[in-house]
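Teaching note: in complex prediction, the entire set of molecules is handled at once rather than each chain in isolation. The prompt given to students was simply: 'Predict the structure of this complex.' The entities are:
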Amino acid sequence: MPERAEDGPFEGPDDLDATRGQVRAVLDRFYAAFESADLDAMRSVWLDDDRATCVHPGALPVRGAAAVGRSWALVMANTPYLQFILTDVDIAVAGDTASVSCTENVLTAEEGGPLDSFGAGQTVSTNVLVRTERGWRLWVRHSSPVAPVQVLSAGDDQDE
Amino acid sequence: MPERAEDGPFEGPDDLDATRGQVRAVLDRFYAAFESADLDAMRSVWLDDDRATCVHPGALPVRGAAAVGRSWALVMANTPYLQFILTDVDIAVAGDTASVSCTENVLTAEEGGPLDSFGAGQTVSTNVLVRTERGWRLWVRHSSPVAPVQVLSAGDDQDE
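The expected output is the structure of the full assembly:
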């Protein structure tokens, strides 16, 4: 049997609540930039580094700040209207790195479509941020569609 | 225009090649445990902490080492044969954290099916590892299917 002891120095910072607030504020800027299709604001959220990595839903990884920025320009050009409602947001902090996982409930509308016609979908995303001299930046993002039927249950009891 | 200067102290370790080797070794143990359906080996790869987070393809996040272990037990119980061929592996290191993104080319076979009948699929995964006193451990994993048609191109030139 392997040892199942504590994993040692992998601790969060002393000011965990403040850190979580800072991380959440950067995430909020990310979604605001996405919803308003503000490419400059979107770029400013990301780490300006060749380590920046983004996996858009159904896509292969895009790597490096320049390529990630171009990918967002493409996404924004093809998304007339978009609104996010986040649920199940979890922020885990480890030193100068934080991982945020959440469910993104997405409301979309086609340009020129009837005003009462909306599409809705659900994606799940993992967002890893790092603390830099200029504040927290988005380092890695992976977003994927949620399948209509959940094939996995992590031991949660079902009501019926 | 926002400043686009260097992001400061977000640096990799001095021994970057050695670190990448250690991280890759843990990933190799992860895939070996998955392929051989060795649940103890799988659990030993993960951070033994409530921050462990795993997004299986098409699923919602599973959080905490205990729930993540149970989810792997379920996956393994429903996967008779599985082989991974990794391509496009990229390891980015930031201090005591590393992010590995790759394409997983998966070969599967149904139990009791004809010997020459295989299924093949492609998933893309992001794996975030942290350095602990007991070595690198898998902290966050997010895996998702690759859509048959790529709707995003990050500025790569196409041949035709």
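Point out the following to students. Helices of chain B lie at 16-35, 39-45, 65-77. The beta strands of chain B are 53-55, 62-63, 81-94, 97-109, 119-132, 135-145.
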